[in-house]
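Dear colleagues,

As part of the handover before I leave the project, I'm documenting each prediction I ran so the next person doesn't have to rerun anything. This entry is a single chain, and its sequence is reproduced below.
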Amino acid sequence: MENKADYEVWYWRNVEDGNEDDNKLIGHATGLQQCEDNARAYAEAIGDEFTGRSYVCSLMDDGKRMENHRNMIGQPG
């Protein structure tokens, strides 16, 4: 299911600063891996250091945000 699920991709620039105004919708993705890949590419494009907290994938259902996720596959525990 996760690879077919539709997500909004949100990126929080300078996440360590804690300013939620820096949280920005950067696109859409199908599946959590594509969501993370899009966030990593965006970080590189803007010269920001990517961390596991830099992005969130908002699961979409019929145009509504349902819940937030991150890709935890391959992430250190």
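Residues 32-46 form the longest helix (15 residues). The chain has one domain: 6-68.

All the best with the project,
I.
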